[in-house]
Amino acid sequence: MTDLTRMTAARLADVVAGGQASAVEVTQAHLDRITAVDHDVHAFLHVDTDGALAAAAAVDTARARDGRSGLGPLAGVPLALKDVLAMEGVPTTCGSRILEGWLPAYDATVTRRLKDAGVVILGKTNMDEFAMGSSTEHSAFGPTHNPWDLSRIPGGSGGGSAAAVAAFEAPLAIGTDTGGSIRQPAAVTGTVGIKPTYGGVSRYGLVALASSLDQAGPCARNVLDAALLHAVIAGHDPLDSTSIDRPVPAVVEAARHGDVRGMRVGVVRELTGDGYQPGVQQRFDEAVVLLQELGAQVVEVSCPHFPYALAAYYLILPSECSSNLAKFDGMRFGLRVGDDGTRSVEEVMGRTRASGFGEEAIRRIMLGTYALSAGYYDAFYGSAQKVRTLVTGDFAAAFEQVDVLVSPTAPTTAFKLGEKLDDPLAMYLNDVATIPANLAGTPGLSLPVGLAPEDGLPVGLQVMAPVLADDRLYRVGAALEAALLDRWGAPILDGAPTL
Amino acid sequence: MAWEQAVSDFDPVLGLEVHVELSTQTKMFCGCPTEFGAAPNTQTCPTCLALPGALPVVNAVAVESAVRLGLALNCSIASWCRFARKNYFYPDMPKNYQISQYDEPIAFGGWLDVEVPTSTGGRIHRIEIERAHMEEDTGKSSHVGGQTGRIHGADYSLVDYNRAGIPLIEVVTKPIEGLGEMAPDVARAFVAELRALVVSLGISDAHMHQGSLRCDVNLSLRQSPSHDFGTRSETKNVNSLRSVSRAVRYEMQRQGARLKAGERIVQETRHWHEDTGITTSGRSKEQAEDYRYFPEPDLVPLAPDADWVEALRAALPELPAARRRRLAAQWGLSDLELTAVLNADALDVIEATVADGASPASARKWWLGELARLANERDVDLGHLGIFPADVARVIALVDAGTLTDTMARQVVDGVLAGEGSPDDVVAGRGLEVVGDDATLQAAIDDAVAANPDVVDKIRSGKVSASGVIVGAVMKATRGQADAARVRELLMARLEISP
Amino acid sequence: MPAISPEQVAHLAALARLDLSEDHLGRLAAELEIIIASVATVSQVATEDIAPTSHPLPLTNVFRLDVVGGSLTVEQALMAAPAVESDRFRVPRILDEES
């Protein structure tokens, strides 16, 4: 049997259900892979060996008792869970010192659904602290390294999840996307990542960064695997008031029947050209041509307010996060600093938060506190929410002309660790193409469309669709992926360096 | 400053904020129970403990209660409104923000009439309501190490979050002008009327001593009604109706003294002390709090359906003011008599006793007389005395039928309170019956006459009052069960003395 | 363009309960200004006639029934607490009285 860690999730599920390998064997193979490579990649913050093997054993028991029919479509498949999602009894840090050692008393809904589906959660992955960042360099526990080049960033904030998948430590991962944190890491690691329609996946148990932007989603090495995972985690949750009470879009169906014939594809004028690395632009353009060859009608579309999206995002996010992060005060959980019996609660809170939060978190809390302050609300937060209306309007207008929009996912390939750390604004520019979808709540997918000629590093193409039309992402993604696979002869990750 | 002077020199402006704790089964945003007095931290969950990742979901009954209260206060009900975050740090508030409503309250622009007794009869004041909005309660802290369990001087605090998240409705009046010396009484009457209102709606048990109805008193003084409003103080910890009027009165005097002495009134929060009858300074509100309000992104807007609101309006119960007027008319009560009933908090029990067959006059006599005395003795309110209106009605019926004298009736009441059963049980058990047959009475009279020849002589010689001794002896002989009037009649007849 | 003074930064840090060094506050003042200047761009397009969006979805009226469920045990509630006494969360002394 081929190396279990090189198999797709769909194949692994089949292998387990059919009895060719036990879930425990599959899990063990991946745990071994983690042991072999993770000291270089550092995708994981915590590996739950015992829990994973127990979950795998349970799948095997169910299979022995009920046969194939007793198992869900991803039973026995290993998965890496971004450390921003609560998992009962398992360390959940959100990449922050302030939560170091925190063991949640409950499972996030996403976690619960994965467990119920028989998915084996191998452990928690590294991330920028509280999901703020584009490189995973803001993790309090050291960065993750891009499996394509260990001296480079894996993207962020969900660099750990993307790297785990790219390094074959897990066929599946869960990420969260607030401004591109699933899609941009997917792009720079040569993997597939989707941000579902806002409200499509429950946020209960997802430690909030920006409540109106956050969304959990699937990370995988191919479009079908991502769709299978999407179908497991999505769906209405009564514990999340913002979750959508409608059937989950037929994403698996769409991923199995990739086809762009007759589809109208819009290239967003404002998301190409200047500011995009030449090799990234090139691979993107080639992929667009390929879409045409596959039968899509491609036009250029203008979304005139997209250039304001970044600025709006960097007001909305800090505002919401300054409030969401207020609960980290050392009183009920997490780090407490400076309580020597004489200090006041105000002082202890102040010291705890100053030492527990990293620089970027502090920066954004301060910015958000400012943006919401009396006297500034209208000009900053209030105005930013208006830009949101305008961006939503741009999408609506565009989707009257086309079925999907496309752009490069990120302006550059993976940059070097440390390269952008001193310039927060330069770091923020990584999200320029992904942010509009978060503001409007529309779904977005990134898939690899080649390696940039100048550096041999992965380039991602982003597909965007209207609200609730997540299936369209998978239809287009699958078609393009199949055509590219044809052209390349092998999946792109086969060309990644051996770790 | 003396009260009379404060009233003559200044014009008070009053503002009242009343927090009503709802008697829903569960909290505002989660399914935790709301029972009073549970062991600490046994009624919490990830949401009301503000564990990272938890989310709020709105309690439908709380919303309905808010709408009904708004309607009963003659408010307009918002057709669309949102919750908002009120951001500030405090250990009893787990998220370090409170989910409340800011510029979009669910109810606004109403009024409540309150009647205040004056020397010339009751006077009705129409108190205008600015708004009523929904919010959540905080946890409770106890302070350890200082004196009196207060915050100042404490070494540390212990927090119980059972109360955190319980639904509150905050009712805010518009500034109430033109009250003059009536301000304390009107304040008290308003709180009392609001309390009666929420109880009649069945949305709260409104026990001020348990904190399910809390009042903050805002007061400022100005030279005259044509002057601008002065600086106001806000007084908290006003835990009873009596405290409301006392606190208003004290603040008027305190502020009057300062203004007279040329001193400024500090805009601050003050704390009422029931034991000493004063307010002391709490936090200075010189710098208006910057709560950085913004719409709650974890919740979606409320849009109460107009038909539903109208149905609630149609189904409102008879409100306290209307009920009082109706009962007073039915029972033929004067204003003074009604006031006595209300002051004794006896309206409900009297109504129930009348419903069970007693005449309004008898019911009033018993509840405001003997039963009020007993309740006072035992330091309970009438409702908790331990005798039901049905029992009282039965006792009255027995007296009316001549089966019991008033004295015996009081013994029956004692028996019921002592747990001997229903009034009939007590009568049977104690053998309490009016000795009605003349033969028995004659025999007893003969015995008493024979035993008291000198008294008989006195009676015959014109000292009719001495008959009391004979009557007393007969009463003693019959264990108080003789009808004293009948005994006297028979005695006089026997002695051949005309009445 | 509003410039941020050291006092303002200190005030923001106090509001946010962040006990930061003078140095850090100084650095933040500079960083906040740059960021704020660039995001003030939004006011160029955010005119009066545009309604703000606080939710990407037009959902309304999401409720739950008033039915008990979902509570933690007291052990679960306290399990992550830095300090516990008598089944309550022990917190340092509170200076400022509120409600």
Number of domains of chain B: 3
Q: Please work out how many helical segments of chain C DSSP would assign.
A: 4
Terminal-residue CA separation of chain C: 37 Å
What is the name of the CATH topology of the domain at 1-48 in chain C?
A: Histone, subunit A
Strands side by side in the biggest sheet of chain C: 2-3
Helix content of chain C: 25-40%
Number of strands of chain B: 15
Give the assembly state of these chains.
Answer: heterotrimer
Radius of gyration of chain B (CA) equals 30 Å
Percent range for β-strand residues of chain B: 15-25%
Helical content of chain B (DSSP H or I, runs of 4+) = 25-40%
User: SS-based structural class of chain B?
Assistant: alpha+beta
The major β-sheet of chain B equals:
9 strands, mixed
Number of strands of chain C: 3
Account of the 3D structure:
The complex is a heterotrimer of chains A (499), B (499) and C (99). Chain A is an alpha/beta fold. Chain A has helices at 9-18, 23-41, 49-66, 109-116, 159-166, 183-189, 223-233, 251-256, 278-293, 309-324, 345-356, 359-372, 378-401, 424-428, 435-440, 470-488, and strands at 44-47, 78-82, 120-125, 172-176, 192-195, 216-220, 264-268, 297-301, 404-408, 444-451, 458-464. Chain A has a domain at 4-258 and 444-495: Alpha-Beta Complex (Amidase signature (AS) enzymes), CATH 3.90.1300.10. Chain A has 16 helices and eleven strands. Chain A has an eleven-stranded mixed beta sheet with strand order 1-3-2-4-6-5-10-11-9-7-8, sandwiched between helices. Chain A is globular. Chain A starts with 8 loop residues before the first helix and ends in an 11-residue tail after the last helix. Chain B has 16 helices and 15 strands. In chain B, the strands form three sheets. Chain B has a nine-stranded mixed beta sheet. In chain B, strands 5-4-15 form a three-stranded antiparallel beta sheet, with no helix packed on it. A two-stranded antiparallel sheet of chain B has the order 8-9. The longest helix of chain B is centred in the middle third of the chain and has 20 residues, at 241-260. Chain C has 99 residues and is mainly alpha-helical. Chain C has a domain at 1-48: Histone, subunit A. Chain C is built from four helices and three strands; from the N terminus they run H-H-H-E-H-E-E. Chain C has a two-stranded antiparallel ribbon with strand order 2-3. Chain C starts with 5 loop residues before the first helix and ends in a 7-residue tail after the last strand. Chains A and C meet through helix 10, helix 11, helix 12 and helix 13 of A and helix 1, helix 2, helix 3 and strand 3 of C. Strand 9 of chain B pairs antiparallel with strand 3 of chain C, so a sheet runs across the interface.
